[in-house]
Write a structure and sequence with these properties.
The protein is an alpha+beta fold. It has 6 helices and 4 strands, in the order H-H-E-E-H-H-H-E-E-H. It has one domain: Gyrase A, domain 2 (2-Layer Sandwich), CATH 3.30.1360.70.
């Protein structure tokens, strides 16, 4: 799930800011689980990371990313229920209830293998 959302964020960056895949390959965009449910399930630091490259405020970048993501596939297909912006420039993402149901089903169907690392991953990611 994290890979799917991160791919959508990267595609949005390419579309909105005309940054090629090669240009953003070295940018370390991170999706973290939020400590406070008030802000959603995940937060993304993309706008904070891109601010110096684009020479724009992180908040402005986050707002543009947010608008683009809202009109994208994640919201249209019901994976995400809300996408919002929080100062200083985080993009907060709340997964839809159906997405959480799908994750739960996958945990039960995959068993212990759900919690194993993919070859390209450095640390365990549950989503």
């Amino acid at each position: 799930m994290i890979k799917k959302i991160k791919s959508a964020v990267l595609a949005s960056i390419e579309e909105v800011f005309k940054i090629s895949a090669d240009e953003h390959a070295n940018i370390d965009i991170v999706l973290n689980t939020d400590k406070l449910p008030l802000f959603g399930d995940l937060s993304c630091n993309a706008a904070l990371i891109l601010a110096s490259t684009l020479k724009r405020s992180p908040l402005e970048i986050a707002e543009q990313l947010c608008e683009n993501l809202k009109s994208g596939e994640l919201c249209k297909n019901g994976t995400v229920s809300t996408i919002s912006v929080a100062r200083p420039g985080f993009v907060n993402i709340t997964l839809a209830n159906e997405t959480w149901n799908d994750i739960s089903k996958k945990i039960f169907s995959d068993g212990p293998s759900f919690f194993s690392l993919d070859e390209d991953e450095k640390k365990l990611s549950y989503l």
